[in-house]
Amino acid sequence: MLRSRSARRRLHALLCYAAALSIVIFAMVPVLWALLTSLKPEADIVTATIRYIPDRVTFENYVAIWTRSNFPTLIANSAVVTLTTVAICVVVGTLASYAVARYRFRGRRELMLFYLVVRMFPAVMIIVPLFILMRSVGLLDSRLGLALAYTTFLLPVFIWMMKGFFDAVPSELEDAARIDGASRIGAMLRIVLPLVMGGLVATAVFVAIGAWNEFLFALMLTTSTGSRTWPVGLQLMVGEFQLPWGALSAGGIISIVPVVVLFAIVQRAMVRGLTAGAVKG
Q: Which positions, given as ranges, span the membrane (predicted)?
């Protein structure tokens, strides 16, 4: 019996590792393919036979896209829009999620349901109203307007996720702080917020990735290089009779680097935050 249980456990662990390895391979193969393509000369990319490993490694695609195009400006625009979106979501979303988690008021359940319904609507349905609104207030083709547009679909996600982290913190801790003379906002800032800091970092990273990679809103709400982001810039590089695979691959790899660096910096806080939000109490 014991041997049978041990064998089943080993088989279960083996299957879990195999499934995890399959997912990793499935996710990493396109990135590896883009990296290898970006290191090939243009003449070696489109050939009669597929060459997986480049015969000659070159960085001319990276040099070309960085010096002969406006890609640095696009990356800077994406960074500004992403940071603005994250700042708005952190400030507004933290206060909103704390209020929903701690206060009991009429319409609270309907409000959370509304946040969920907003995420269910396709983005195409709100593009035209957002375009008209941005044009009427003078924010069309601006980085601030684009950040506000991103907030419309990322803020509900932020509130939903942060509410779970606030629910996991016992309210008795705040009651004790208020007995000692702290205000409601003081108890939140000094007691609750440090306890959910890991969850806040994890949620902010999730929002940052969503804003960094967004394409549809950036395509429809920007028209000039001064406000376009990198996904739109890569799409505009594709011509009717030209497809620069090397430059596109190099641009994709460059755009991945900030996300990888961000994960490397905050990975411990993210894991701690996601684990803390999984168990209440």
A: 12-36, 79-101, 113-134, 146-166, 187-212, 245-266
